[in-house]
Amino acid sequence: MTIFAQNLDQYLKEHTSPEIASTVMTLADSSIAIRDLLNKGVLAGIHGEAGGQNIQGETQKKLDVISNDLLLNALTQNSNCAAVASEELDDISPANQDGTLLVTFDPLDGSSNIDINMTVGTIFSILPYHHQGQVATETDFLQAGKHQLASGYFIYGTSTMLALTFGAGVSMFSLDPASRQYVLINERITISQQTAEYAINASNRRYWLAPLAQYIEELAQGDTGVRNKDYNMRWVAAMIADVHRILVRGGVFMYPFDTKIAGKAGKLRLMYEANPMSFIIEQAGGASTDGVQRIMDIEPTGIHQRIPVVLGAKQEVEYIKSLHDQAGILANGEKI
Ligand code: AFP
């Protein structure tokens, strides 16, 4: 792999506006602080439930709470951010009225992985803010994903990486622990249209809709079934890790509609997970739907809205849509 040896700050100067560059640098600085805490692990007192007390009698916070606070404080101090919305907070946090950007983030995706020393990450999305001089409200955030100006994620795995898009391809950076700088390692990430690998929590099988159940059954039949080839399955239980794997070696990821919890249209959040990851996946040449409809076309109705997600290799995503179309049902099971 070619190492371009260009640092993130230099890359940002060349590829985006000063406002977005400054906001991404704020996110990147916070990610390095989060990664430092993750590396210290149990020794940093970050494992376990929030709400306990340390030896000084101070409240101990779980790392997802600490990460949330870190990002929130840093972003609200950035003059370009009009407001911030976090998966961890009920309400949005207005910041600087003259800012031109809105930022949403999931501070630690896959946080149930922290205590088992597995991969987690931070996902973010940057949207335009149109009401300078006024205090931003939740309504300002309710923009379809196609309006995102930038999105990306920091993945804290065996190494720390950043995937980033401004709508002109996806670039990947790796954190150099010595210089504490993100270094560009790949300027054009692309996803293969086909795959032989899929990711789904198969324990939910009995709650899936018929088209999705049929699809997974076809894959499981491998070279004895209609797909005529064997498939491999992986599930990290952190979307960030499953999506990163797809960017690196291809695949299809599904957290589909299921009937497990009445009234929930899926597990993943549109504004914090589905939209930013869809932007990355599409920009890498993949596709992203709720099973039927392009996710980035969906008009959000609430900041914490949940949505089914099917993303990755274009041919597989389109095939899943065709199964829903043939069955005459929408991704949420309603009849067309
Ligand atoms: P946590 O952040 O609570 O660990 O949830 C992670 C997540 O939202 C997403 O990153 C995973 O793909 C998905 O949940 C895993 O869900 P299951 O627990 O159903 O496998």
TrEMBL record:
Keywords: Carbohydrate metabolism, Cytoplasm, Hydrolase, Magnesium, Metal-binding. It comes from the Bacteria. Pathway: Carbohydrate biosynthesis. Its EC number is 3.1.3.11. Signal peptide: none annotated. Residues 12-186 form the Fructose-1-6-bisphosphatase class I N-terminal domain. Mg(2+) 1 binds at residues 87, 106, 108. Mg(2+) 2 binds at residues 106, 109, 273. Binds 2 magnesium ions per subunit. Gene3D superfamilies: 3.40.190.80, Fructose-1,6-Bisphosphatase, subunit A, domain 1 (3.30.540.10). It is found in: Cytoplasm. Its cofactor is Mg(2+). Belongs to the FBPase class 1 family. Homotetramer. This is Fructose-1,6-bisphosphatase class 1. The lineage of its organism: Bacteria, Pseudomonadati, Pseudomonadota, Gammaproteobacteria, Moraxellales.
